[in-house]
Each structure stands twice: as C-alpha cells, then as structure tokens.
Amino acid sequence: MNLSPAQVLIDAQKAVPAVRYAAGVAGIAAVVAIVAGFRLDPRIAVFGTIIVLGLMFVLVVFSALVAHAGPALVNLALVAAWCFLLLTVATSAMLMTSYFFAWPKSIGSYLPPPTPEVLNFDTENTYSDPETPIDAGAYLGAFGIELENKTAGTRVVLINHLGSYGGKAFLPVSRPNVLTQMGSIDPVTFTLIFSRPLSRLSFVMPPLIAAAESGITFPKWRAYGLDAQGVEIASVGSDQFGSHIHTDSRTFTLPAPGSGVCIKAVRFDSDSERHAAFAAILIDDLALWYAPSNQCQ
C-alpha cells in the first residue's frame, strides 16, 4: 500500500472532490516556503499572490463569457485582448530601455536602495599582540581591493586600538581594528582600487580620546574619489585639529556624481605636520555601494 503524501492527496480527492482545493493551498504554502528559503521580502510573496489570484479570477470570468457570448461580446474580447497585448509589449520595451539606457527613467530609481558591503577590519586577530600592526594587503585583497601608490617607506596596516598609546587615544566604532598608514612623519598617501565600480562609499573616523593633559591632535587629511581614468570626481577631508576633550565618531561620504560616472578608486592623503598623534587618517567601517557596471562609463 502506497502511503506517500502525494498518493494520499490523490485518494482523498477521489473520495471527496472538494479536497482538490487543498492542492491550491499547498501551492501557496510552497511559494511562502520558497520566499523564506531565498530570504526574500515576504511582502513580495503576499502582494504577488494577491495579484496572481486576481488575474486568475479575471481570466476565468473572461473565458466563461467568451464561451457563451454572442458576436458583440466576442468583438469586445478581441479589442481587450489586443489592448492587453500592446500594453504588455510597451511595458516590456520600457523595462528594457530603463535597465540598459536609463530611459525614460532608470529602473534603479524604482528599486530600494542597495545594502553596502562594510569592511570593519576586525576579522584579523590582533588581540594576541595588539602592539604589532598587520599588513592590510591580504585583508583588502579578499574584498577585491588593490592597494597602490603608497608613499615609499610606509605601510598601510590594521592596528588594534589597545596597541596605540595604551588604548587611550581612540576607540573604534567596531572593535578592535582600524585601517591607517604608518612609517613617516612627512605627508603620506595611498590608493585603494576597487574591482567593481561604486556609486558611493563612506567611512568612519573613530572617536578620539583626550586622555593626556596635552589632549590629542589628529592629522590633516583628504580623500579623493577617482573614476576609471583616474580623474578626481569627489572629495572630502578635514584640516589638522587638536582637542582636550573626547570627540565623537564622524562619518564621511564620497558620492559619485551620477550621469554614468562611478568611483573606481579612492586616494587618501594625510599630513601630520610632524606633530600629530598619528601619521595618517584612521579609517573604520569602510562601506561600499556597488554600482551596476552597465551604468558606468
């Protein structure tokens, strides 16, 4: 005797024909399970199911009317069918041009904002030896980021806040590490080149701690967003400043100007003027918003 779920449902439908509607309920439940499995927004399944059921109802009524209709209703049905066909073709054409040519309006403007990829620099274990910086090349490479054009004799590193002035200089938003440049008291620079173009990026300058009587001094710095040809398309920065009180974290953003121009690299220039507490900017929580490659020149 076959007691599989499918066979039980078939036998039940033979005994009680109304049970066939259970198959429809099971289909809807399957859609919900698929949506949950792919971690999609449940609203997509809810509204999608309602729309599909509504269209199915219209189709059933339409079929029934056509089957028992006279010539007048048949002509009306033909007009409705041609209108629906033209609407479908026009909608498909507009969707294609919106995606490939951003006309009449970019399809991205109808979609929810993308979620950025955030590099918090904390997967590297620095607790075992917090005073020893770790070269950042391997960490950045795992995200498809190349480190280029750094000042000769310097290193771009991940440092544990506990290893800098005994942990009394700054406090990362995401602990324990930040990205910075070390090895010179003169002006320094480095460039991050991204494997995928960006629509924008942001980073956090961690809170500074003025633990000593002399307070704390942060270097002058500036970040430049570069396009694929190396042209500067955005910039943000800060002059050198000192503080005798604790300062909160600050978030800085580099947006691409749009019109098909995307960020392909970012250059960080820093100047300690030979007396700041750090040689270069401290970077935490680097967030990357990737842009569709077909929208970048």
Short structural description:
This protein is α+β, with helices and mostly antiparallel strands and 297 residues long.
Could you tell me the strand content as a percent range? 25-35%
**CATH topology type of the largest domain:** Jelly Rolls
Q: Supply Rg.
A: 30 Å
The number of E-state strands comes to 13
Give the overall average pLDDT: 83
Shape: elongated
How helix-rich are the residues, as a percent range?
25-40%
Order of helices and strands: HHHHEEHEEEEEEEEEEE
Low-confidence stretches: none
Number of helices: 5
Terminal CA distance: 66 Å
Global structural class: alpha+beta
CATH class of the largest domain: Mainly Beta
CATH architect. name of the largest domain: Sandwich
